[in-house]
Design a protein that fits this description.
9 helices, 281 residues, two-stranded antiparallel sheet, Four Helix Bundle (Hemerythrin (Met), subunit A)
Length: 281
């Protein structure tokens, strides 16, 4: 059990009601540490996720075949459901006592007796045990084990060819972005232009690091593709012309297309993950 203060709504994972503008304290329950053995990087095959997908599929199949009055097929999928459900206790021993094996046995007995109504009842109760666990742990487990861990990622500087820590690269990007805004607004065209060029180089370097997690080029294309280049070109032209207003619009578009778009997917979950880990230690 850990206690943390959260004053924002994060990707639907944590909701917090604010009353009289005061922060409220909520309690989050961490899953057993043994669960981590079944997620990357400890487990490349991510056996836990595949087990959960298999359970959902088997549950659906049993439910559908009961409605279709196909007992043999319902029994076939019930056996698969049994195997996956019991494996939970083997993978995470701390949850063994939480499993509703009684309802699993009742499901098999009802299927053998040809009692579809009793089988459906047992199946629904079994599903309730799954939902109970998901309510407590699914969102937190997703953050802990599926949110990106940027501490493991490095970015190569295309000029020095040195590997740099991800957080240092992000700090430099923020500094360069703000320098463009400051210098352009103060009429320092040369500094603004040089900073924009440096920002572009560092963004390209950052884009090369996407492949450490993503298996295709599509994510990088969405962030650093044609839209980004067009916004950067407009910003460069506005700086050269001394058009502060147009430069501000172009800079805002670039920040939304690149920074906000990527942060909206990755940073929020990553920050919450770090917070949870720090509080648990």
């Amino acid at each position: 059990m850990i206690r943390i203060l959260i004053s924002f709504l994060l990707l639907g994972l944590v909701s917090l009601a604010i009353a009289d503008e005061a922060e409220r304290e909520i309690t989050l329950k961490l899953p057993p540490a043994s669960l981590g053995r079944w997620y990357k990087p400890a487990n490349e095959r991510q056996v836990w996720l595949h087990t959960m997908f298999g359970l959902r599929r088997a549950y659906q199949a049993v439910s559908e075949y009961l409605l279709l009055e196909k007992p043999k097929l319902a029994g076939k999928w019930a056996r698969r459901l049994d195997e996956g459900y019991r494996s939970i206790g083997k993978m995470v021993p701390e949850w063994r006592e939480e499993l509703d094996i009684q309802q699993l046995d009742a499901l098999h007995a009802a299927l053998r007796a040809g009692d579809a109504k009793a089988a459906g009842k047992a199946l629904r109760k079994l599903g309730s045990s799954c939902r109970s666990c998901h309510r407590e742990y699914r969102a937190i487990a997703a953050v802990l084990y599926r949110a990106p861990d940027f501490s493991r990622i490095t970015v190569e500087d295309s000029e020095s060819l040195e590997e740099e820590a991800f957080d240092k690269v992000m700090e430099r990007l923020s500094t360069l972005l703000n320098r463009v805004k400051i210098a352009a607004g103060d009429g320092r065209k040369r500094v603004a232009g040089e900073s924009l060029a440096a920002l572009g180089r560092r963004l390209e370097d950052l884009g090369e690091s996407c492949g450490q997690c993503h298996q295709d080029a599509a994510p990088r294309g969405r962030i650093l593709g044609t839209g980004y280049r067009q916004a950067a070109d407009r910003l460069g032209a506005a700086i050269a012309a001394g058009d502060v207003k147009a430069g501000g619009r172009a800079l805002g578009e670039l920040a939304v297309r690149v920074c906000a778009r990527c942060h909206g997917v990755h940073r929020l979950a990553s920050d919450l993950r770090e917070t949870l880990i720090e509080e648990a230690e």
